[in-house]
Amino acid sequence: MTVLNVTGVAVELGGRQVLEDVDLSISSSEQVGLIGPNGAGKTTLLRAVLGLLPITAGSITIDGKTPQDARGSIGYVPQRHEFVWDYPVQVRTAVMTGRTHRIGWLRRPGQVDRDAVQEALERVDLTDLANRPIGELSGGQRQRVLVARALALKPSLLLLDEPFTGLDVPTQEILTRLFKDLTAEDTAILMTTHDLPAAADTCHRLCLLNGTVVADGSPDELRDPAIWLRAFGVARSEQLLHSLGVTR
Ligand SMILES: Nc1ncnc2c1ncn2[C@@H]1O[C@H](COP(=O)(O)OP(=O)(O)OP(=O)(O)O)[C@@H](O)[C@H]1O
């Protein structure tokens, strides 16, 4: 079943066309890697899917709804530096903020909300740190807080912006396993990353973006080096091709 449907989407920022004619669809149980060079528009696309940026053409639906109407079923894990870590709250409270769209701004969390937060903490193995102030956490622990915060919504679509950057191998493995479990439970995942080998290993499909979708297919279908060179806007990059295990 299609969860995310992006058709002919264009986004302008500061008078500049950042995305043009972007098509992308993701089904439940699919993990898709969004790959592209710096400035390709990956974060912009995630923010458009979240309804945080206006689109100037095309359409975006999540479970058949507009981004604004679907906000309560999209989990978003921003890049770690975008979150305010010196805010004096405990881990459990930070994770509860992920449910704001479900609870509403003026209501207090109920038992359902507390249970969802507890389950999310368990899934990222953070129950021992639930009462720790977020400012005292390591980088890997902070990443797990952000993932738990997104999971507390029990989303049908999970958007991850560079979830593995700066993480040690054990933390990467915990998250990789978790994302696999989530897709097995029908969650659709769209993840930006610069870690191409890891993306090729873990994602069902890769979407190569550079202002528009240059290629979209399974890692096996994208073995032609010309596709990667076109996506990254370079004439020739042995290192890029080598890191992908793509042969000329
Ligand atoms: N608020 C803004 N106003 C104007 N231009 C912007 C704004 N935000 C981003 N841009 C520009 O839009 C383009 C796409 O940025 P975006 O952050 O989506 O790229 P990205 O693919 O996520 O890059 P990276 O891999 O470096 O994170 C860049 O050229 C960026 O400078």
UniProtKB/TrEMBL annotation:
SMART domains: AAA. Keywords: ATP-binding, Nucleotide-binding, Transport. Signal peptide: none annotated. Gene3D superfamilies: P-loop containing nucleotide triphosphate hydrolases. The keyword Transmembrane helix does not apply. One of its GO terms (molecular function) is ATP binding. InterPro entries: AAA+_ATPase, ABC_transporter-like_ATP-bd, ABC_transporter-like_CS, ABC_trspt_anch-rpt_ATP-bd, Metal_Ion_Import_ABC, P-loop_NTPase. The keyword Hydrolase does not apply. Belongs to the ABC transporter superfamily. This is Anchored repeat-type ABC transporter ATP-binding subunit. It comes from Kribbella albertanoniae.
